[in-house]
Amino acid sequence: MCPLKKNPTIYDVAKYSGTSISTISRVLNSPDKVNVETRRKVSAAIDALGFVPKAEARARALRLNGRIGVMTPFFTAPSFVQRLRGIAGGLSKKNYDLVIYTVDSVDQLQSYLSSLPLTGNLDGLILMSLPIEDVAVNRLLKHHIPTVLIEFPHKKLNSVEIDDIGGGRMAAEYLVAKGHRRIAFLGDTDLPEYSIHPVSLRLVGFRQALQEAGITLTDEFVRLAPYTMEQTRQVAIELLSASNPPTAVFAATDFQALGMLKVARHLGIKVPEQLAVIGFDDLDMAEYADLTTVRQHLDESGRLAIEILLSHIADNSRPVQHINLPLNIVERITA
Amino acid sequence: MCPLKKNPTIYDVAKYSGTSISTISRVLNSPDKVNVETRRKVSAAIDALGFVPKAEARARALRLNGRIGVMTPFFTAPSFVQRLRGIAGGLSKKNYDLVIYTVDSVDQLQSYLSSLPLTGNLDGLILMSLPIEDVAVNRLLKHHIPTVLIEFPHKKLNSVEIDDIGGGRMAAEYLVAKGHRRIAFLGDTDLPEYSIHPVSLRLVGFRQALQEAGITLTDEFVRLAPYTMEQTRQVAIELLSASNPPTAVFAATDFQALGMLKVARHLGIKVPEQLAVIGFDDLDMAEYADLTTVRQHLDESGRLAIEILLSHIADNSRPVQHINLPLNIVERITA
DNA sequence: TGCTAAACTGAAAGTGCTTTCATAAATCGT
DNA sequence: ACGATTTATGAAAGCACTTTCAGTTTAGCA
């Protein structure tokens, strides 16, 4: 009869639609729990009255804001994306907003980390592949923001990690077992300075295991290229067209392994006969390319991260968790 | 005695300072109405407990940072990711929070669309590859939420689109010009029912152009497979191992083109000599695979969407824009 | 000293929404 | 057809604060 009141509340909507406030609340928050017919009536009432739920009241009743933040290096790397997918998947149906903060400098990271906790409108935070200083850790702790780190552990915060050194070793052992002696390493350099460099750890493990097999990794066989297809190709070409090229290459990321494969293809080098290539990550496209690789379950790492986060939001007295995800070699055909 | 509780409220402060919550509230809101001595005690308690009124924090945060929402189909498709990257890039340094909503059913889309404009505190919204009904459009308009649609235009809302039909034509013309007559189409079926299906449009254009070249696309040469590598392979195998296989295939997405290439490789079919493959999208990995493809600039679509959105947020009287992004063929080596 | 106005303060009633719990209705197996 | 579930709904108890209102001090002033 008389729509457009000043500021309709759920009480008004309830009256108008002939239901109760609980029902209104339900159609707003979990529509599937409301009979479709009732839902329709309520929606109509909401529209008719121009009802707008007040975020403040909601946050108060819920004792949380329903927002979880994810900070990630500006996602150029496919692996970040797959992790993000895991996070989004684990969060769907959970009634939390997913707020993405892309970081592209150490300054920005710092400033996010110093202001975000204070604004008090995040219920939890996930840091992907970002290093965090003690000061920032303490700030998060002090403000009781549940936090999960992916790929960059800190003893006081939850984390989901992998054993990069071990992964490097696995790659080395695999190639050695296949009989290779002339083995090269292809890594990237330009993960931005503020970001942890798991690639270096992979190199450490790789070198160790080779050492133990009596093989010395010479400088000539350790190549680093910025994380772009073009630069990777450049380095790959140098490596492969040397006078005495390697018979096997461990690329510290699948992305670079793919670059390597492309170069090999163009140079007419047969894979795996003349050149074995093993990658690291097991990106989606690794399967397409039949790339043998050290698999870390990227999606899973994201999924685990929110699981931990949500459980800590629900009960913030839970002890800190450090989860170590297993690695394994996926043997396809490039090595 | 025991400061640092989880989340101090005014009740805690009241107890700690031996006053009542009303007094705390007054100290916060109108200090001059509180006896200076009491005020001092309360302030001390506030400091000791590290009390931050939640509502205030929220309000401040909401003023300081704007929020842009992006709704996307649950991003399994690489193309969504690349668009998202464009969006994030265009938004960095802009002092807006990026809130991601992943949609995986038509119900969820509806419910987001009916509640987000109201409850979401969003300054603007981008819908990626999602169809939107008139009702929802009107709701957005009514609540003055600037919106940009990507890949699914609506006359009343801003949009960034491409000419899918034209793209299909380009592919056909390209293949015909190369002398092919036996040409097949590989599309996907399982873009979830709620999502627009640009692939069908590509097929329409493709068929048209073939027709004009005097070639009829038979049903046998139109194959649809769900959007997974496995299913795509299955269909590709059927197609290629038929008694009279096609000499060229247009895959409606690069992802499927890659699946096709993989199958061809496994069957020992030479590309492009025995089989030409052309894709659509120009994903990152298309370059790696040397895939000839119809390029749409995915990153750019996201960036443009954000630009339009921000300009409309700044001045909501601007007229609706419909931007049409150009397509072009990137000739690499698979076709 | 007695009486009133001014200055404080706390109890309690909102505020708009969520959620638990109990009840009522509908669906099902047999 | 009948108890057993399952599903849908409403009543009512929070949630973290603000504000009103009445009560208690205190101060002011004959």
What is the CATH C-level name of the largest domain in chain A?
Alpha Beta
Largest sheet of chain A: 6 strands, parallel
* Helicity level of chain A: 40-55%
Q: What would the CATH topology of the largest domain in chain A be? A: Rossmann fold
Taken from the alpha-carbon principal axes, the silhouette of chain A is elongated
Query: Helix tally of chain A?
Result: 13
What is the total domain count of chain A? 3
| Cα distance spanning the termini of chain A | 75 Å
Gist of the model:
With 335 residues, chain A is an alpha/beta fold. Helices cover 46% and strands 18% of the residues of chain A. Chain A has three domains: 10-53, lambda repressor-like DNA-binding domains (434 Repressor (Amino-terminal Domain), Orthogonal Bundle), CATH 1.10.260; 65-162 and 299-327, Response regulator (Rossmann fold), CATH 3.40.50; 164-296, Rossmann fold, CATH 3.40.50.
Notes on the protein architecture:
The structure is a homodimer of 335-residue chains. The mean pLDDT of chain A is 88. Chain A folds into 3 domains: 10-53, Orthogonal Bundle (434 Repressor (Amino-terminal Domain)), CATH 1.10.260; 65-162 and 299-327, Response regulator (Rossmann fold), CATH 3.40.50; 164-296, Response regulator (Rossmann fold). Chain A contains 13 helices and 12 strands. In chain A, helix 1 (10-17) crosses helix 2 and helix 8 (164-177) crosses helix 9. In chain A, the strands form 2 sheets. In chain A, strands 2-1-3-4-5-11 form a 6-stranded parallel sheet, sandwiched between helices. A 6-stranded mixed sheet of chain A has the order 7-6-8-9-10-12, sandwiched between helices. By secondary structure, chain A is an alpha/beta fold. In chain A, 46% of the residues lie in helices and 18% in strands. In chain A, strand 8 (248-251), helix 11 (254-267) and strand 9 (276-281) form a beta-alpha-beta unit. Chains A and B meet through helix 3, helix 4, helix 5, strand 2 and helix 11 of A and helix 4, helix 5, strand 2, helix 6 and helix 11 of B. Strand 2 of chain A pairs antiparallel with strand 2 (96-103) of chain B. The structure holds a DNA duplex (30 and 30 nucleotides).
